[in-house]
Specification:
This is TonB C-terminal domain-containing protein. It comes from Brevundimonas alba. By secondary structure, the protein is α+β, with helices and mostly antiparallel strands. The protein has three domains: about 40-115, no CATH class; about 125-225, TolA/TonB C-terminal domain (2-Layer Sandwich); about 230-320, TonB (TolA/TonB C-terminal domain). It has six helices and 17 strands. Strands 2-1-3-4 form a four-stranded antiparallel beta sheet. It has a three-stranded antiparallel beta sheet with strand order 7-6-9, with helices on one face. The longest helix is centred in the middle third of the chain and has 14 residues, at about 175-190. The chain starts with about 40 loop residues before the first strand and ends with a strand. About 30% of the residues are buried. Residues about 1-25 have low confidence and may be disordered.
Length: about 325
């Protein structure tokens, strides 16, 4: 894994001259609950071109929703450029109570995804799993930890236009510590397999998802450990770009933030790809999308095993500071 911290040199704009601003009036989105104490609504949102999301809503227990219920949630979320064209949709369950203006998130987690793309059941691989170095599943873990890396990780992955896989999601919950370790390695391995443009039936591979089962056996004899090199960040972000992309509301409020992303370092020297936000502190202030844009301008060297380059899952941290 690689980490880098970057600070934006900013000049904080002066706040208003002591004038008090009345808090906005917030109306409840669905005022009629027909005598119910609360109503939970399931929103299934899929991500469209440009990063916006299209949501459909279904209330539990037969509550009659207005036709624009999904649109209500669409207008209350920022763009996600990291999810453009991924074919993923996410479930967000919100609980609405008659006496409260804001809903409560019952389930709003980045682990609850599914593909709305169709499944590709007969893929033709140009770079199959079997062609990869077996050590790719275990490096850079130290030998003493490697022996504990045993199990199977079932994945669903979207197929990009270039045949590589994108945004793999787990088919079951990943909970235990060691299982989390091998799950992250499974995603790194999956980033290196590649499909032919057409499936066995002649249909296009891109825009569909495939299933993979990555098997780990830390007790297996792999032979002498090969020489390897981790990716190295070779460039710095453009300060003017960070200044330009600093979220206006956060700038006015003097808010600083740290955003953690997972990205793919290419199998050649070049910019990071497919960055997704996995942590944002504080959240909800608009730092996620610009952090993705900045991270994907950073150039890294490739991960190599015995000189052979591989795509690698890396962690990148962007720190926003006002000076």
């Amino acid at each position: 894994m690689i980490e880098a911290m970057f600070a934006a040199a900013m000049t904080l704009a002066a706040a208003g001259g002591g004038q008090q601003v009345a808090p906005p009036v917030v109306e409840r989105p669905f005022p009629s609950f027909e005598g119910r104490a609360s109503v939970t609504i399931d929103f299934w949102c899929r991500y469209e071109a440009g990063g916006g999301r299209r949501c459909d809503a279904a209330a539990r227990d037969g509550f009659d929703l207005p036709e624009d219920a999904g649109r209500w949630l669409e207008t209350r979320t920022g763009p996600r450029p990291d999810l453009v064209g991924t074919g993923l949709r996410r479930r967000v369950a919100l609980e609405f109570k008659p006496g409260e203006a804001q809903p409560t998130a019952v389930r709003d987690t980045d682990r609850h995804w599914e593909f709305w793309w169709p499944e590709l059941t007969d893929p033709v691989w140009s770079i199959p799993l079997e062609s990869l170095d077996p050590y790719l599943s275990y490096l850079p873990a130290p030998p003493e930890r490697r022996t504990l890396m045993t199990g199977e990780i079932p994945l669903q992955c979207g197929v990009r236009a270039d045949g590589y896989l994108d945004l793999c999601i787990f088919e079951r919950p990943i909970e235990e510590e060691m299982e989390t370790v091998i799950a992250n390695r499974a995603r790194a391995v999956a980033a290196n397999v590649r499909l032919e443009p057409a499936a066995a039936d002649g249909s296009a591979s891109a825009g569909r998802f495939v299933r993979l089962n990555i098997v780990f056996d830390g007790g297996a004899t792999l032979g002498a450990e090969p020489a390897s090199e981790n990716p190295v960040t070779l460039s710095q972000p453009d300060p003017e770009m960070m200044s330009r992309l600093y979220p206006p509301g956060a700038l006015e409020a003097g808010v600083e933030a740290t955003v953690t992303l997972e990205c793919i370092a290419q199998a050649a020297t070049g910019p990071l790809e497919n960055c997704t936000v996995i942590g944002e502190d504080p959240g909800g202030r608009g730092f996620g999308p610009p952090s993705v844009a900045i991270a994907e301008t950073l150039v890294t060297s490739p991960f190599t095993i015995e000189g052979r380059p591989y795509r690698q899952l890396v962690r990148q941290r962007i720190v926003w500071r006002l000076h």
